[in-house]
Each structure stands twice: as structure tokens, then as C-alpha cells.
Specification:
3 domains; 241 residues; Arc Repressor Mutant, subunit A; alpha+beta; elongated; three-stranded antiparallel sheet; single chain; 14 strands; disordered N terminus
């Protein structure tokens, strides 16, 4: 619900946008005009069927260009919610929004799962389906301040629980921290590489270090290990049993 006390409310006496009149938004269903106006009728308060109240100007009401921030809009589960956290600042997407959408994409995008099937069983805690909750909670995660200040870190859901022998595959406040990309790719497994040209073999545990050593693509190594790619620059890869 919108906190109405922050607005200067006036009685709605409009003959067009009268109290209780029902209108249709483009993407968020029907809404009705609240009996109170706002700022001498420059805007009206509009209430959606789920009880969410937003303010809107005449032109947007007429065209249906009103969005319900509590309406699901991202990968079938995510919604912006009502609060201080924005998806854009000065028409530029915020880093919090990019992080949130990326997390939801990994868990709920069928297109993403076709390319990276290991994420099929991953989920996001329901509280984090709300963008506002997500932004509030990640401030308490290890590494947040470094990430916020521009250090290249990634949101990881595995390293905390894996150290305890638990593999939940869920993004939540209790399972996530910010870590480097290199740390994020450390799986604890040992891999065996085979160079076809001379049958040279080498064991390694860090995919990034091995890729840098031999001028290879870390992404392609992952693709080979998953079976989606057979050979990368004359090398094959497998997990050591």
C-alpha cells in the first residue's frame, strides 16, 4: 500500500475521473480512482484489485500507462514492490536491479536453462521475489560494501553452505555472500585435461587459472565439462573421479 500521509490530499470532484470509476491499465489489469485527489488534482490516487495504491496523472490514466509495482513482471516470479529502491536512476539501470534480474534469470529462465542446465533446480527464496526486500537484505551480506563500491564481486549461493556439506541450491540471505569470480568458480573438484595433438594430460582444480595458463576460454572449459561441447582448441576435459 502507498503511504497516503505523505501526500497533500484533496476531495475528488472531477467529472471525468470521478471517485470509484474503473479504468484499465495496459499490463496490470483494472484499477479504480480513489475518492481523494493529489496536489490540486494534478494527479489521482489509483487502487488496483490487490489493494496497491499508486498516484497517476490524467494522461497516464486515460492511456492506461499505470504500473502496479506489486504485479509480477520478471521471469514469472519477480516484482518491484513499493519502496526506495529503483530499477533505474537517470534512465540508467541500477546495479542492484541488474544483480536481482540476473539471479532470477539463472533460476527461472527456460532459455537460460537450455544453455546452463545445472541451474534448473536452483530457486530464490520467496522474500527475494520482491526487489525491495532483496535490496534491503543484501546490505547485510559479507562483501556487500566492496561490491557497492565497485569491486568486481558476484553473488554466490554455494560457498557458505558447501563448506558445511549442505547443498541447498537456493538464493537467500542465509546462503549468499559476495565473492570474486575466481572464488565463485572454485568447486572443490579436480579436472583432467587432455591435449589431443600430443596426448599431454594435466590435472587442475582452478578453471580460471588453467584457462589463463594455456590461453583458453573458461566458458568453453565449462561447456566441455558439461558435455555441451566436445573439444576446445584441441583440448578435452573431464572430472577426475
Amino acid at each position: 500500500m502507498l503511504f497516503l500521509q505523505q501526500y497533500e490530499l484533496r476531495e475528488n470532484t472531477s467529472k471525468i475521473y470521478f471517485n470509484g470509476s474503473v479504468w484499465e491499465s495496459v499490463n496490470c489489469g483494472k484499477f479504480k480512482i480513489d475518492k481523494r485527489g493529489y496536489k490540486l488534482f494534478e494527479s489521482f490516487l489509483c487502487e488496483f484489485n490487490d489493494g496497491t495504491i499508486v498516484e497517476s496523472q490524467f494522461s497516464n490514466i486515460r492511456l492506461g500507462n499505470i504500473k502496479n509495482p506489486n504485479s509480477i513482471s520478471v521471469f514469472g516470479v519477480g516484482y518491484l514492490g513499493i519502496g526506495k529502491w529503483k530499477s533505474k536512476n537517470d534512465k540508467k539501470v541500477t546495479k542492484e536491479y541488474r544483480l536481482w534480474v540476473g539471479m532470477l534469470r539463472r533460476c527461472y529462465s527456460e532459455k537460460f536453462h537450455k544453455k546452463y542446465p545445472t541451474y534448473k533446480d536452483c530457486t530464490v527464496i520467496e522474500r527475494w521475489h520482491n526487489f525491495q526486500n532483496f535490496c534491503e537484505d543484501i546490505q547485510e551480506l559479507e562483501g556487500y560494501n566492496d561490491w557497492r563500491n565497485g569491486i568486481a564481486l558476484e553473488l554466490d549461493k554455494d560457498i557458505l553452505r558447501n563448506a558445511m556439506g549442505i547443498f541447498p541450491k537456493i538464493y537467500s540471505k542465509d546462503t549468499c555472500i559476495f565473492i570474486t569470480k575466481k572464488e565463485n568458480l572454485e568447486t572443490g573438484l579436480t579436472y583432467i585435461s587432455h591435449r589431443i595433438s600430443d596426448s599431454y594430460e594435466e590435472e587442475f582444480s582452478s578453471q580460471i587459472d588453467f584457462a589463463e595458463k594455456w590461453n583458453l576460454s573458461n566458458h568453453c572449459i565449462v561447456e566441455c565439462l558439461s558435455g555441451r561441447q566436445k573439444i576446445h582448441k584441441g583440448w578435452t576435459f573431464k572430472v577426475k573421479e
